[in-house]
Design a protein that fits this description.
three-stranded antiparallel sheet, binds 6-bromopyridin-3-amine, globular, alpha+beta, about 425 residues, single chain
Length: about 425
């Protein structure tokens, strides 16, 4: 019996229907609104995607962590008007505690880092793939849960941390066959806006809320949020200067605005140099209008996007050096990103880059090949079928871990050598 009076009432109605018709009310077989079932064929795709995320994380020296899906609501109470805190899946539990399903993983991670404090060996490089939740009015028909690959580096104040995270994102894209023609990564720094607003006398405690409003400009017109900006104390002169800053097209023009002594400018230039050295400079685009929608970002921010402009942001992240301070802890430099499972699945489908996950292809030949590999004690099995030949790749299955990834033909021996060395 359900614990609430409403629950007891609906159970009574169901029972009374059963008594009168002798037939049990048929159970609603759909998952709760905004959530998904994962049948075996869905799990094959999900495990393929997560397998790539885990491989890339480990190749970059990250370790896996996890935290409860249910957290104290206070982790997410922020006063900057973010969408993520206005759509909490929150409630009071039977112990009268205010709790929430996590809408993001970063606050849980910050809590775990703060709990370990100075006993942690820095840098901390941790990853996780949590299911995250929001309670959105279903009028917009959007999902209420998604899985989000999180990669974070703690204890590195320098821009090399951002470069490493961008390397991980690009490495993932390349592994699944996405190129810099398909996807770009917009890069900016909130320090740009911070320098401009500080120079115009805007108090630092208005900065986070201002960035949250600026982020909304991607979807709404300036006049729709001008009132909220004015409520923050931004005059029309400041708003005009702010909007002009968002439209700056390149780092040379940015230098005209900020001057050559700007720390924000120096960091962005340094990041572009690192990107050149890593070999992924062609994936990056400076875009002064990108600020992201989370209140706690303080420095470089970035977001992956499809160049056809048909999808929502693929991934996004940034530096959040002050988050621990907002939890009453000692500040510790931090930077990270989130990468959801939904948009990337749409992109891979649109580009015909999803492998065939039908299990009927495990035909007799495949069964023999796996059996033979087992008899030989092979560590890996390389599969080359019609699909693989058409795409110029091979499937490499790690027989010990059961993970299967696609590898370009020219990189197979290096890939297996790396796997055997790890
Ligand atoms: N934060 C969040 C949670 C769940 C979904 Br779906 N989207 C965003």
């Amino acid at each position: 019996m359900s614990g609430t009076s409403q629950g007891r009432a609906s159970a009574a109605v169901a029972q009374s229907k059963e008594k009168s018709t002798g037939k049990k009310e048929k159970l609603d077989l759909k998952p709760p609104k905004g959530t998904r079932d994962f049948y075996p064929e869905d799990m094959r795709m999900r495990n393929w995607l997560f397998g790539h995320w885990k491989d890339v994380a480990r190749l970059h020296g990250f370790e896996e962590y996890d935290a409860p899906v249910l957290e104290s609501e206070e982790l997410y109470i922020r006063k900057a008007g973010e969408e993520v805190t206005q759509q909490l899946y929150n409630f009071e539990d039977k112990g009268e505690r205010r709790v929430s399903l996590r809408p993001e993983m970063t606050p849980s991670l910050a809590r775990m880092v703060m709990a370990r404090g100075k006993s942690l060996t820095l840098p901390v490089k941790w990853f996780s793939i949590p299911q995250c939740w929001r309670y959105e009015r279903m009028t917009r028909g959007r999902r209420r849960e998604h899985y989000q690959w999180n990669m974070d580096i703690w204890g590195v104040p320098g821009i090399e941390a951002e470069a490493e995270l961008l390397s991980a994102i690009v490495t993932f894209f390349k592994r699944v066959g996405i190129t810099s023609q398909d996807v770009g990564i917009k890069v900016n720094s909130r320090a740009v806006l911070s320098e401009v607003l500080t120079a115009m006398g805007v108090p630092a405690d208005k900065f986070a809320a201002t960035c949250v409003l600026v982020d909304k400009l991607e979807k709404v017109k300036l006049d729709d949020i001008r009132g909220e900006m004015q409520e923050l104390g931004l005059t029309d002169e400041i708003i005009t200067k702010l909007v002009a800053t968002l439209s700056i097209k390149d780092l040379d023009a940015l230098e005209q605005t900020l001057g050559n002594g700007s720390k924000a400018l120096a960091q962005l230039k340094q990041l572009m140099e690192y990107a050149e050295a890593y070999g992924f400079r062609d994936w990056l685009i400076f875009d002064a209008s990108v600020v992201r929608g989370l209140a706690y970002y303080t420095g470089v921010v970035f977001e992956g996007f499809d160049r056809k402009g048909e999808l929502r942001a693929i991934c996004g992240g940034g530096r959040y050096d002050e988050l621990l301070a907002t939890f009453g802890g000692e500040p510790l430099p931090a930077v990270g990103f989130g990468f959801g499972d939904a948009v990337i699945a749409e992109l891979l489908k649109d580009r015909n880059l999803l492998p065939n996950f039908d299990n009927n292809k495990e035909d007799k030949k495949m069964k023999w090949a796996f059996k033979h590999a087992e008899r030989l004690g092979a560590s890996h099995l390389v599969i080359i079928g019609e699909d693989e030949i058409a795409k110029g790749i091979v499937q490499v299955k790690n027989l010990a871990k059961g993970e299967q990834v696609e590898v370009e033909v020219s990189k197979v021996s290096d890939f297996i050598a790396e796997q055997l060395a790890s």
